[in-house]
Amino acid sequence: MYKKLIITCCLLFSTQAIAKKEALLVGVSNYGGDPRNDLMGIDLDINNMKRVFNSFGFDSIKVLYNQESLQIADYLKSYARNLNSNDTFALYYSGHGSFVADKNGDEVDDHKDEVLVLSDGVRNIPFIDDNLNYYLNSIKARKLIIFDSCHSGTANRGNSNSKIRVKTFPSKKLDAPLEKGIKIGKDIESGDYIVLSASKDNESSLATDSGSLFTNEIYKLLRTQNALDSIKENATYGIIHYAKSHKRKPHHPQFTYSKPEFKNISMAQYLNEKPQKNSLQNQLDKLVNRSSVEKIYISNTKLDYNTGEFINFRFNTNANEG
């Protein structure tokens, strides 16, 4: 029995030591129809966010650009299969946002579902928020979600030569949705998460030939040790200053947290923080619950270990120690 427990403990410690950090970056600049639908600076957004996630030690960063964006659901399903509660997952999207009529009655305020507008350069395809949140809830990892798009249906894009465009898309010009049917997923509800959005639901986010305003601001700020609430305040100030100086209507970033205390920590703290429920002692306690052993004590005071390190522990089996 002791041999079985020792083998199980070794597997447990190894699993804990190799927690994964994976990111999916989705950018769409080439849209179908009117050339004014296209967005500038999206490639710069993607490159900047790759640098951010690299700086936070992400092991895998996958980019879906333009027509590849239509693969987003398949990738989200894969993350749901392969990531667990010890892991970290980040999703970043930069492109148009829009809305479609709510078909399942969960949007009681405006009766509209917000969508990400994906495109293969010909069709402009909405990915409905219910379906997106359904997939995000299926991913057990700690989550960071960043949307640099707007959620209004305003078509106020300006002319094709403008160096500033709003990231909205008229709903009447959308093609068929990415997926048939609506899944239940109005909100992100599972596990720890932080959602950073570029604007309020009724606002239009701005893109420029030097990158989207929101992404440019958080690119400068996320890697600082500032608390997330401070980052939100500074990003908002930067966007308002730029928009007003260019005679554009500013938008206001929205940050949402699964726990109120997250607003007081830095992004580095959030991405590197290990959930308390998965501490080494708690993992051992779970092991005890599945066996006849009363308790497994950690002899060392150290709780974090890397693969290959030794740990001393002691079994208590009804006063018969081993």
Mean pLDDT rating: 81
Tally of individual domains: 2
Binned, the helix content reads 25-40%
Radius of gyration: 23 Å
CATH topology of the largest domain: Rossmann fold
General shape: globular
Count of DSSP helices? 8
Which structural class do you get from the secondary structure elements?
alpha/beta
Profile the largest sheet.
6 strands, mixed
CA(first)-CA(last) distance: 11 Å
How much strand? 15-25%
Number of strands: 15
* H and E string: HEHEHEEEEHEEEEEHHEHHEEE
CATH architecture of the largest domain: 3-Layer(aba) Sandwich
Quaternary status: single chain
Broad CATH class of the largest domain: Alpha Beta
Show the helix and strand layout.
Blueprint: H1 2-17, E1 21-27, H2 42-55, E2 60-65, H3 72-82, E3 88-94, E4 97-101, E5 112-119, E6 124-128, H4 129-138, E7 142-148, E8 164-166, E9 193-197, E10 206-208, E11 211-212, H5 213-221, H6 228-245, E12 254-257, H7 267-272, H8 280-289, E13 295-298, E14 313-317, E15 320-321
Parallel strand pairs: 1-2, 1-3, 3-7, 7-9
Antiparallel strand pairs: 4-5, 5-6, 8-10, 9-12, 10-11, 13-14, 14-15
Helix pairs in contact: 1-8, 3-4, 5-6
